[in-house]
Amino acid sequence: MKRSKFVTATAALGGAALLLAACGNGDADAEVGVPDNPEEVSGSITVWTYPLATVDSLSWWEPHVERFNEEYPDVEVEMVMQAFQNREEALVTAIAGNNAPDVVYFNPDFIPQYADEDLLLPLDDLRDDWDTAFIDSSLEAMTWDDTLYGAPLLMQIMSAYCNIEVMEESGVETCPTTWDEFREAAPQFVDAGYYATEYSGTSTLNHTYYKFLWQAGGEVLNEDLTAAAFNSPEGLEALEFIKEMADEGWVPTEPLSVSETFEQSQAGQGNVGYIAGANLGEHRTTIDAENMEIVPPMSHVEQVASGSVGAWSIFNTTDSPEAAQAFVHFLSDQEFIEEFIADSGFLPPREDVDIETIFADDPQTAEGAQYLDTVRTGVMHPQAREIIDTIRPHIQSVLLEGTDPQDALDAAEAEVNALLERAG
Amino acid sequence: MAAVVTPVDQRPTSDPPQRKRTPLWRSKGAMVAYVFILPYVLFFAVFRIAPAIYGTVLSFGDFSLSGAFTLEGLDNYRRLFADSLFWNALRVTGIYAAIAIPVTVAISLAMAQLCNRVLRGMSFFRSIYFLPVVTSPVLAGIVFIWIFSADGPLNSGLSIFGLELGSWLQSSVLVLPALALVSAWLNFGYNMLILLAGMLAIPVDYYEAAELDGASTWQRFRKITLPLLKPALFFVLILETVKSFQAFDTIYVMTGGGPVRASYTLTYMIFDQGFGYFDFGYASATGVVLLIITLIFSLIQRRILGRDN
């Protein structure tokens, strides 16, 4: 079919542009690097941040922006505290309305999607110490097509722990760290009237099925990301493991199809023996820290933990690329990250941050830092979310409707391959 | 007696010249009315009509977030009609609407009838019944997750009658009725007010006459209330049809389209394709199809119920 290309005709549809106005590519080719002359850098930038644990108010940012302004007096920084709820809708609407922020806080799954839309500024040359100071996995999580698009701010590992009281009442002596150990402990938890663990059928597969798939030694997509690879013996083993949990009553059934708030969940009420991946800050709101035995991430063929990386990306639509780069450079300095980590309780993406001192009173969080190299954040692909949405119903059908795991994987594979083929 | 027809050319011409009347639409009163409705018309044009036109244009192409638009003709529609996801979403939307519309309208009608009486404190009850309308659907969704859970109060109540249904939101069969009940709870208060206003406008004499003739309560409702309530009922039906076809927020909060896409509606699909996958052209094509379906259903309802109005 003959295709004619044209830039969105805003003139013809001026009023309609309120819905989805086209936005230009601004300074897409701007060079990136550390500005040599801070006093000559000027401009006004808008930075979208989010409530990051206890760093949830603009007042926290004020002294840091002031410190940045001591070096860059002519850069005006406007910090905007956005809500995580409806995060993507707000961002897409802002971009489509030609009102995108200059700098934004991103997690890994955003990077390929927005980079593929040619909206982000490469950051490879922003710092000289990427390779020497930063943890590799934090940079890999922000890289798409061999280009770095995010300056890491924080890392997060979903910690594995056992509820000590539940363990004692169930007679489980050792908190499981492998699939086999879990299979051994699970019936004991259940016999004592507890659940062995939890499995969410509605949350991102990065923290659920994918994690077990990776632990089994499998992959979601093939190496060149052109076809599904999860329909494999490893993928089947992972799905059968989850099915076993559901069939044996090791997990509560409600979370298989419904998103519960943590307080409403069985884990939140202290009725679960082993948690495979917990946001410690959240779990400590209802579970006493002294009642948690933190253990290494679960392993089978491989040891894999789920987690995330938070980073700053710059939209190439910015009118002040130099100012944005200067601020992101500042935000990825050792001094700033150390202060942020100390106040927020996240783990640092930099190896030169003194974790032992910062978390001297919180050995449970510090312990997580040992396992950052086992963290896998997800599948780096522009269609990653669509792939998850495609596979998830098939997994639900296995857990809720008794579909044969192999049949479910066959069906999911066909749909994912069709999706990848269409995306080209 | 045969009617006398005067040929046009033989009509008397000696009538006094009639004063030319100003058409109603150009009268002074009309002008004032135009001024009053102008802001709304402008807002409606800018925020409703224009986006709808723009969305229709988008449906014929591929729009990227970076601003480029590529015209692709009917590609999005061809893809849509070959997409099993779309047909599933259409089926789910249809079933949901088929449950939600009659349930909501029936409850609204029943509540309006209950409130249509002189009773001490009735205005208090009417206010209470309106409360769900101003309740956040998201908050309501969270509460209803608990109500419909396996160990929730609904199942506890049903177990008294020996019914063990398990978690409603986990069942592909029960999830849509559950969501329809939530929709009915959220919406009946507003519909009730409209229907109540319609009922209060019916002259009491009709009921008194019917009562004297020995008509039962049901007969009075069926033969007097329902026919005279047609304009209000038609409005409520159209409102509920549109709402049902656009159901999203409670589904988003309560089921995420699951289990196994059993509550994955067309609006949810539009949301995913647009905001999730940035496939705005495809999302717009789905939106256009939804618009056409809603229009067809509204026209059918108008034909059946609202032809006199």
Task: Show the helix and strand layout.
The complex is a heterodimer of chains A (424) and B (309).
Chain A: E1 5-7, H1 17-20, E2 43-49, H2 58-71, E3 75-81, H3 87-96, E4 103-106, H4 110-116, H5 130-133, H6 136-140, E5 143-144, E6 147-148, E7 151-157, E8 159-163, H7 164-170, H8 179-191, H9 209-215, H10 233-247, E9 274-278, H11 280-283, E10 292-295, E11 305-314, H12 321-331, H13 334-344, H14 355-358, H15 363-369, E12 375-376, H16 384-401, H17 405-423
Parallel strand pairs in A: 2-3, 2-4, 11-12
Antiparallel strand pairs in A: 4-11, 5-6, 7-11, 8-9, 8-10
Chain B: H1 28-58, E1 61-63, E2 68-71, H2 75-81, H3 84-115, H4 122-130, H5 137-147, H6 153-160, H7 175-200, H8 204-212, H9 217-228, H10 230-245, H11 249-254, H12 266-276, H13 280-305
Antiparallel strand pairs in B: 1-2
Helix pairs in contact in B: 1-13, 2-13, 3-7, 3-10, 7-10, 10-13, 12-13
Structural features:
heterodimer; A: 424 residues; alpha/beta; 6-stranded mixed β-sheet; 3-stranded antiparallel β-sheet; 17 helices; disordered N terminus; B: 309 residues; mainly alpha; 13 helices; 2 strands; 2% strand; flat
Task: Give your account of this protein's structure.
The complex is a heterodimer of chains A (424) and B (309). Residues 1-31 of chain A have low confidence and may be disordered. Helices cover 38% and strands 14% of the residues of chain A. Chain A starts with a strand and ends with a helix. In chain A, the strands form 3 sheets. In chain A, strands 2, 3, 4, 7, 11 and 12 form a 6-stranded mixed sheet that branches. Chain A has a 3-stranded antiparallel sheet with strand order 9-8-10. A two-stranded antiparallel sheet of chain A has the order 5-6. Chain A is α/β, with parallel strands linked by helices. In chain A, helix 7 (164-170) packs across helix 8. In chain A, strand 5 (143-144) and strand 6 form a beta hairpin. Chain B is an all-alpha fold and 309 residues long. Helix content of chain B is 66%, strand content 2%. Chain B has 13 helices and 2 strands. Chain B has a two-stranded antiparallel sheet with strand order 1-2. In chain B, a hairpin with a 4-residue loop joins strand 1 (61-63) and strand 2 (68-71). The longest helix of chain B is centred in the first third of the chain and has 32 residues, at 84-115. Chain B starts with 27 loop residues before the first helix and ends with a helix. At the A-B interface, strand 1, helix 1, helix 3 and helix 16 of A face helix 1, strand 2, helix 5 and helix 12 of B.
